[in-house]
Amino acid sequence: DVADLPSVPDWLPDHLRNEGIESLYPPQAEAVEAGVTRGQNLVASIPTASGKTLIAQLAMLSAIAGGPAEDAAEADKDDERAAGGTALYIVPLRALASEKKAEFEEFEQYGLDVGVSTGNYESEGGWLASKDIVVATSEKVDSLVRNDAPWLEDLSCVVTDEVHLVDDGERGPTLEVTLAKLRRINPDMQTVALSATIGNAAELAEWLDAHLVDSDWRPIELQKGVHYGQALHLEDGSQSELPVRGNEKPTAAIVRDTLEDEGSTLVFVNSRRNAEAAARRLANTVEPFLSGEEREKLQGVASEIRDVSDTETSDDLADAVAGGAAFHHAGLAPEHRELVEDAFRDRLLKVVSATPTLAAGVNTPSRRVVVRDWRRYDGTAGGMQPLSVLEVHQMMGRAGRPGLDPYGEAVLLANSHDELDELFERYVWADPEPVRSKLAAEPALRTHLLATVASGFARSREGLLDFLDRTLYATQTTESGRLEAVVDDVLAYLQVNDFLEREGDELSATSLGHTVSRLYLDPMSAAEIIDGLREWERTAGQQDTQSPHDGREAADADGEPPGFTTASDLVSDDDGGAEEGGEERNVEDDEIPDPTAMGLYHLVSRTPDMYQLYLRSGDQEEYSMVAYEREAEFLGAMPSEYEDNRFDDWLSALKTARLLEDWASEVDEDQITERYGVGPGDIRGKVETAQWLLGAAESLASELDLAATPGVRKARTRVEHGVREELVDLAGIRGVGRKRARRLFDAGIETRADLRDADKSVVLAALRGREKTAETVLENAGHRDPSMEDVEPSDDVSYERR
Ligand code: ADP
Question: Which one of 190, 414, 621, 631 is most buried, counting C-beta atoms within 10 A?
Fold first, then answer.
């Protein structure tokens, strides 16, 4: 019973009862027995929707209430702090951070303060120090550690959600290393890790010195199965008729069948666009089943959705919602996601089509789950790849609403009898894969070794190996020597690139190395950027001055445009030559032309921190041509066509760079999506990454005193606002944006100052008569209009500081 919980705040039992929680679920009871409310470390590997969140809350609330009351010595120590320190909750996705924050905010009525930390990777988040519970992604926590956030020393409890993601090649190592660092900073801290059911939870527990709760218990029975032909085939061997009519799709048939029984369906698909398309179609299936009252309420939700923002996504979502269906993915505005989740929980929405984000952390149970797509596009692996058993089981776990449904059903869809068998083998009967550390890979170690040395967690090769001994990798590996070998390779790389220095046994980060670590760059990205900028400075500067000292013929002897370099010019270069460029620059800054935006976009697009666009058939030829046409703009030498892989990478980066260039040249979003075969969310993603990388390039250029700094800044602000140079000033005003900036410019309002003094009627006309928009924009520009004297001064600070 919740009244018997040891070491929790007094108010908690009543609070839980108000939430409808009278007694603990069996895995929760096990966790309490294992001491989760008394500061014990715990790994909980239990199915989706079986109450992991409460376990996390019990740990955090008891930790911040002042730690273990039973142990007198411990209690004394804790009393010295004002409260029991801060609890940190690590989420795998930014989209889930606000979700969790909202969940924990219900404790604010008891005087607890909850904060969420996302966004910029360069600050120490000092304001978080006063919070009792902080929610953040592992990348954010990693960057807080790198920036020496002092409040991290007051952590009394850290909870890691979805800890099985340490298996992820890209993000897993960050989580692994970050947990090791937090535990090093706070040896007494309680560590709680929540995992989906996996095969090797005991290994995770061993790694974290934790008790293990490993359970298959579910609050409601789940039947997994496959739909094929006209029937549902379930794992207990039963079959139930589920006919597909005429040209109806199987998903629609399942949704209809569930509706006839007054149930709801959650449909998992493999991309945002598929989620949107499915919702549109399934609304047609749902619509006839809606009652008059439901229709009215759904109209209400639809108009709330439209009020959030005035975009195509918002419109599409509202249209689907009016028909009783919705889509859900990480590209939605948080307000949109919340409206969708609430309406689904209130049983107003009958169908939600979602990408796997929803399976990961959001509590939205439904009678049936359809896993429509069991393959997804994976660029690294090339083509469509099957989802892992673990992922599919997590999606399936959302089936069945406790207290409402007799049981849940979760099905995959088969197109043939063979596929029916395959899906049973592959997913229904299969056990989830064991989780394996991906740390012993060069790209992961490059970043983390530098950061580990830079923030002082290790000061020698031995110290590093000792630190790595606290990772999951060390727990799992039997291959002695492998990690050491990779560490040595990586250390050599970091030294050659001047990020680390070695004196005897002593390892330390150079000033450049510190910067790279704080900027949260992959050192290889930093090296690529630095080389590119130096190369530009050396070759572009040379042409104007024909600097004789390095004996090279300047390209402009042939009358080539400035910045022209040929591949053969540079192939013979060694590192030393490039390095000298920075110090021995014997030309004045102003003689070196700025690199073009295209050149810089290409530079950052070829770093490992940019997820490049893929070349489709026909792209090879097209982008080879573009590459030769624009060769003069590249920072660094283009590889020869005979170096297949390097040349193809160069072209992929070029395709990515051209998307960025289009964006920064005011090409319409619709046109860009068509031209590159991407979604609007992808454009945003590339733009954000480019902005971050160019910001980092700017810091590196100024630290190394390179001439390209102003050019980098221009390229960054252009891509940030999606405009040509002349609009940067206007587009920086809140509420203006790329389209409105162009309209204002065309109406003769060319700068922020122009707008401040502009005639309101001119602005109104330029903004197509939208009164309210015009007023907001004028206000944000600090318009001098006597009729607006009373208006609060607008918050210009964010603009000025950009
Ligand atoms: P998980 O994080 O494991 O996927 P959640 O923690 O979101 O699952 O829990 C799923 C649902 O079960 C939530 O609505 C939660 O309020 C409810 N729940 C959790 N524990 C209990 C309990 N002991 N008794 C009743 N309901 C509970």
Answer: 190
Model confidence pLDDT, tens digit, residues 444-495: 899 999 999 999 999 999 999 999 988 898 888 877 788 888 899 999 999 9
Q: Are residues 412 and 267 in the same domain?
A: yes
Same domain, 182 and 279: no
Pairwise pLDDT comparison (382 vs 735), residue with the higher score: 735
For residue 433, is it within any domain? no
Distance, CA of 466 to CA of 460 (rounded, Å): 10
Please report the ipTM that was assigned to this predicted complex: 0.98
287-296 confidence digits (pLDDT tens): 999 999 999 9
Regarding the beta carbon of 274 and ligand 1, being less than 6 Å apart is answered: no
**Which backbone phi and psi does 397 adopt, to 5 degrees?**
-65, -15
Indicate if 140 and 181 belong to the same structural domain: yes
* Mutual angle of helices 442-454 and 461-468, in 10-degree steps: 110
pLDDT tens per residue across span 264-314: 999 999 988 899 999 999 999 999 999 999 999 999 999 999 988 777 888
State which residues form the domain around 347.
Answer: 222-428
- Model confidence at 511: pLDDT above 90: yes
Assign residue 119 the CATH number of its domain.
3.40.50.300
CB 137 within 8 A of CB 170: no
44 Cβ closer than 6 Å to some ligand 1 atom: no
Report if residue 25 sits inside a domain: yes
> Is 364 near ligand 1, meaning CB less than 6 Å away?
no
25 lines ligand 1 (CB under 6 A): yes
Q: How many domains are there within the chain?
A: 5
Position 575 confidence tier, pLDDT thresholds 50, 70, 90? very low
**768 and 742 share a domain?**
yes
In whole angstroms, give the CA distance from residue 266 to residue 743.
43
633, part of any domain? yes
Tell me which of 16, 25, 53, 89 to substitute to probe ligand 1's pocket, judged by most ligand atoms within 8 Å of the beta carbon: 53
Judge if 123 and 254 occupy the same domain: no
Tally of CB atoms within 10 A around 238: 11
